[in-house]
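Quality-control log, excerpt.
Job 1 of 2 completed; input and output follow.
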Amino acid sequence: MFLETRSRSAANATSVVGKVSLFRFQRAMLAAVLCLLAFGSSFAQTVTLRLDNPNRDTYPTEVGWNVVNAATNQSVTCHPTGSTPPTTVTFNVVPGDYILYGYDSFGDNWQGTRLTIVRSSDGLVLVNGVQKADRLRVPNVCPGPTANGEVIARFTVASPCAGPTITQQPTSRAACTGTTTTFTVASTMTNGTYDWRKDGVVQATTSVPSWTLAVNASSGGIYDVLLRDACNPNTAITGSSPAVLTVALAPTITQQPPATRDVCEGANDTLRIRAVATGRQMQWRFNGVNIPGATDSNLVIMNAGPTHVGTYDCVVSGQCAPTVTSSTTAFNVVFRPRTTSEPNDLVLCPGTNSSMTFTASGTNLTYQWFRNGQAIPGATSPTYAINNYQYSMNGLYRCVATSNVPNPNNCRVTATSREVTLSGYLQPVLVSSPTSTDACVGQRLTLSSDFTGSDLSYQWFRDTVAIPNINSNVLTIDRVTAANAGRYTVRATGTCGLNVTSAAAVITVIAPPTITKNLSAMTVEVGKPINLSIGATDVRTVQWFKNGQPIPGATSLDFTIAQSKFSDAGSYNAIIRNGCGAVTSTSALVKVVEEVIPVAELELAVASHNMGEIPVGHSRTATLASVITNSGTAPLTVLSVTSSNPAFVVTSAPANLYTLQPGQSASITVVGTAGTRGTMAGAITITTDAPANSTGTITLAAEAVLRYDVAQLADFGTVAITTTKTLCVDVTNTSSTDIAIDNASIAGANSDQFAVQSTMPVTVGAGQTVQLCLDFTPTTTGAKAATVNIVSSTGGNSSVNMAGLGDDPSSVVEAANLGITVAPNPSFDAVSISLGSLTGNAAIRVMSATGRTVTSFDVADATAGTLVRWDGRDAAGTPVSSGMYYIVVQHGSTIATVPVTMVR
């Protein structure tokens, strides 16, 4: 058993890869085992006799035995009666048949004593718990043999099963990948199995003494074989000496060069191949011909040009056949175009045709013309045609020729022409036009106009008809007649026939003025207007006189005194002049008499106006047309128009001190803005200078409506930070008309942690309900609050408060899990906070729904069930208002939150 154990240990040592010395040690050990096993098969085996005597202490000396070789009748172990027997006896025997005799010096059937014999090497039970059966008193004397004892058992000791002997060991070798190699072993084993191992790990089990291995790159290592004899495959084992397999790698390409390669002209590039082989050699080829010196895995191509265009591959060879050739690389050089002709600057006459040309040499060229840096749509030919030239075409032009070839490396594949200028001959510029004037009949008239330009010629026109025989910028008429009146222009013409025409000068032919309408005497009431008017021909200036003295500012054909006074009475006349002479009107005697005093009266068209329903947050405009009227006989001055309620704003009304003539009316525009739901009332007060009833009032009314109901608070409760909770609130249309929610937006300190999920706008039918869905995504712990503002031009504006508490999942626990409670909840006054199972120190904060700390207090040395009272007041001692509050209990790293509602 010891030798077999050592044999297995030696075999296990082969699992250490590469430790050839251990295999040599194993081979020596196995040889020793084989020798010992062979020796043991002819000589003694160890056998153990065990004594089982429950009454040994009472009858220790009466038991005796003798084991005798049945063939030789020789005793191999003996114990006499009369002495205390040993519990265990180990002795050696040779294979054969044996007899176990039993003796009893007292004759009482051994008092229950039993004998068991086992083979020590493998624990095989040869005799199992036998005892002397008869009660004869038969003592014995050792050593034997003797036949007078009772035969209590017979047994046979057979030769043990041993591992086979190896006569020819597996041999070390070298092999190429892709081939096969066969390991063989010769031995004395005729029936058994072969465990073929690599680096101590079984690879295959055969029933023949050979194993063929398909060689690959990972096949190299230390190989051996375990021979297991069929007599006992678990113990009859012999291990071979190690054999080393060295793998020679056949040429294998692990990374192919690229299938195609496009390289910029003049650039450097490298083609790469990766391959493995024992004794690896490489040879690059160009168009199938070896490239001298190109025997590295990298082929460097310098200054790529026409001579480098072609196909490249690489042949890999080595110690093992066959050689392998890489895939080919189609190597292409991306060449730049070359300019062959350039365009030139152009100066053109408007409306003419011309062209610019740029050519280049290259492969698959395309052209694109540019003006002022911008590509010209459709200008893709070497020649750019300029048709019907206009000044708008002026600019800097250039053309880019592009080689339309594969260009994955963004090579430069363009050639750009020089930049040329396209411009045109300009039309003459008008500096000054002839001046309109009066011309007296029979006098000399001269008109002139100035221009700048080249090669100018001139043509004058009267009423668009050319005046012949004048090529000058000056026109002279020696004696003016009535026929010379008209509109005079001059046209200047320059290069390319370009021309410009002056503005028209109106020539009016006049004579000395004559009176066509004279003055008459008149009488007016004091305060009434005095209106005097004359008519005349060729009037250029007028001057009125009173009692022979000029009246300042009275220089038109009509003379008016808006409100006459007694001092305005007198004799009036006028003198009319022009460049040809003057004429004086007749004199008119004006008398001013007493007047009847008129009275202004204020009259309002309506006493009240109802603007109807106005959605909260929105406005409605009403125009009270012709609502203010002067019903008196004197002018009425409106001093002010005011509103008693800021919800009603007068946006259009007569300005202060606005005067209404008798019978004249004015309108008022009012804008009503609904602030909160409910009835709106106000009044417009109009104050005037009327001698009686100077003030009037128009009462205003409207109804501010919110045509839908929505919750005032959206409480998200406790939400783990960085997670999102969605909460939807109902929006119910309480009116009989459809409304639309135009928009909903978030505002407030924590607005970034709330969002509107619903898509706007949303239509809500009469009597219907829709949901406004909101998201809460806390980014930090603590109470958070914001407001969602709802805008509806048809239903009114409103808002919903939002509140939530951000919790850290790693530290926040449910209050119920700790037994923390708050009662009563809701509360009208104070609440009691039970700390449940918490012990030690704790901190308590009371926070509002908006995240504000209301008050806080510490609890020291709390015990299970400790009660803490909050009196419902803030840190200043003021009772808190109605609403939602949060009781936050922190105990070490643990945080628990309980919401509580206060009702006042």
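Job 2 of 2 completed; input and output follow.
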Amino acid sequence: MKKIILFLFVFLGMGFGARAQQNKADSLEKLLSKKLTDTVRVNVLNELAFAIYPINPEKSKEYSSEALKSSEKLNYTKGIGYAYVNMGLYFRQKGEFEQAFESLSKALEILEPTSEIEARGNAYITLGLINAQQGNFAKSHQNHLKALKLYENANNKEKIAVCLANIGSTYLFQEEYTLALQYYFKSLPVSQSVNDQWREANCYGNIAWAYSRKGNYDTALIYFDKYLVLAKEIKQPTGRVLIVIGETYLEKKEYPQALEVLRESFASLEKSKNKYYVAEVCNALGKTYLGLNRSDSALFFYKKALFYAQAVGAKALVSKSYEGVSKVYQKQNKIDSAYKYLDLFIQLKDSVYKEETLRKMNFAQFTHDLEKKQTEITILQEQNSKEVIARNLIIVVVVLLLSGTVLLFINRNKIKKKNNLLYLQNIEIKEKTEEILTKNNEILVQNEELQQQKEEIMSQRDNISVKNEELQHQKEKIEEASRSMGIISEIGQQITATLNLEKAVMILYQYINEIMSVDELGIGTYDPQSQKISYEYYIYKGEREPFFELSIEHERFSTWVIRHQKSLFLGNVHAEYTTYIKNLDSYSADRPFHSIICLPLMISERVLGVVSIRSADKYAYNEYHLDVLQALASYISIALENTSSYQLLKEANKNITDSIRYAQDIQQAILPPEEEIKAFFSEYFIVYSPKDIVSGDFYWLTRSQNKTFVAVVDCTGHGVPGAFMSMIGNTLLNEIVNIENITETNEVLSQLDQKIRLALQQDSRRNQDGMDLSICSIEAMNDGFQIIFSGAKSNLIYIQHGKSYKIKGDSKTIGGIHKEKKLTFTKHQRFLPAESLLYLYSDGFIDQADPEGNRIGSTQFEAWIKEVYVRDLPLQKEFFLDKLRQHQKDVRQRDDITLLGLKL
């Protein structure tokens, strides 16, 4: 099964039944309404906070805060401790781990000296859950064991079941699935024995999850069904569990089933406001939609996941989100964006891998220390048991001797009177004495045996001491390996971070040349179609060799490695080569070598190429050198894959960009040329700024029946889709006004709406594309100009005698699906004197955001017009561009911008 890094711990917890907790909370709230003494009220508040937190966390926080405040006034230690435990539960539920740690640490500091088992156990469990969610499994395991010991001493079966399940989950995340299942199956019957249906349901979920991680998907789904049936019966929230069910369907590539489950999970978890879980389900939904080829939805959920994952600092989730966003952009042919997120993913992926490896090593060390301590405890228990037996036997002998003496004293007078019984009693005493002596002898023998055993134990302790020294030595080796791994990881990160393969090869050569003898280093890329290995980067004694190729059929070590997809490690080539190739004829006699390591470069069972190092010395390399090169080979494979992907993206980007720039030339051709505009207006300015080379905005100018028509149009979308709509809009406006001779602006808009809907077949295809626009007809009169304006979700601003006026267009858009057979628009008529100014604009300028996300807005835009209208129009253009730059700063343009200023 492909590894799934979830870190959900969806089935971990304290073990609450929703109905039972609600009933308990109702009873406690009734009790709280009565008159209670100070400490009793604090206890009720704490109990109520604990009971209600799974179903109403915010209310739980209120009760905990009140309990803490009252307890501090009363100096009531127990109340303070319980309140901090409840605050820790609340913060953990909200995913605010730092505050949770602080509260729980304070609780344990206060409660540790007390006998408050329940509160201490809950604190340890919650700490264990947080440790697990942060990836510190050794610490998580330790905290759950502390809680388990407390609850076993108290014989609290409900909490024993919780601890067993939580310990199972720490094993689960270490990929110890068999051990995880053992603990889950231990927890299940304990939960059933106390009729804890909440915990029983979670046990089924845990078991299902473990089987899913093992790749036993069908078995997993059987147990998930058991979980869902019981969870719905007891009204247990299932949002978190459904994530894992959805992931299971994803692994089976059953995307519709996964989508159904994950949608239900998202609806539930979004209400909980737990950022960690929302991030996880959004990543899963992104992957599902990508599998269904619904890239827009996939991008939405991946970006939502990224937002929440970054908010809680979950690196593994952030890495998964970066990878998902990159894949979506690649599918959408947005090459720059795809590369940007691919680069972020590569940078973070190595850090996540390194942290995960260190966590595994820490957990392995913790498990070893735990087993060592358990062995020592067992030895001491056996020794103490034998010493106790010896002491007890000696006590028996002493008691018997004392008893005999007392009997002799008591019967002293009786012996005188009963001489006839003396003989018999003497015989009896003699027999008892002999029996005691026999027992004494037995005790002596046992003492000798115990002494011998003691000596054996001391010998065992000496052996344990030796083993501890060996373990310490092993630990030092592990630490050294960890340091080496850190260095390799840093080198690997440098290799994968660059998209320049030549640079990656030189980084690799410099590093391995420091730790081993390297006369030759070669990295070849394999083309399965041509069946050739290309060596563009081959270094001999520090110098780069010319490019050369090898057929896969050549008798070479590198070709053998690729054909068999196996590593090759030789210390005496001339004595060992026949195992792999028939002869050494392909190798130059001028470059003799005796040692070689040759490894295939692979990703997901796909061969990308080969890496090899050679030395003229015999047995120049050892197992350590092999391990180092194998570790680096994985990074080289990633570098090859990244470089290949980048080149493909770069080439695709160039082709797409070239096509779009050609489309830009075509679009520019439909815009009115400056000579034509100057023929109609003595003074004007145009701010025209497409967001993505080509634009969904356009401006239009024509003359018909002694009237000048001017329009600014904002089509649906931007970039290429918007540009297509602009071409359609321009063509239809020319047809309506210049061919059909329709000159009433409101009728122009009505006709444009009908023609757009017909052209895009919107009634049958449910297409919603359209456009917003403002259009004016201008007719010269003897003493001024007749202006007629109509607008579809667009306005006109004009300046007359130094005052600013705005005419609002209708709140209707052109095109799309609507009930009316024919849209009607309003015709606004004004008479304006010469020197008046007109401003037509799309909403792109107004909607532009600053770094904080604040729009320019209509109010600010209109204020700028009032400020600048007195200047010449070319200067007005510079004014608006300066204002736009000052507001926008480094923020990327969010929409196409068009602004026309005209003087009558």
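Post-run check on job 2. The chain has a mean pLDDT of 81.
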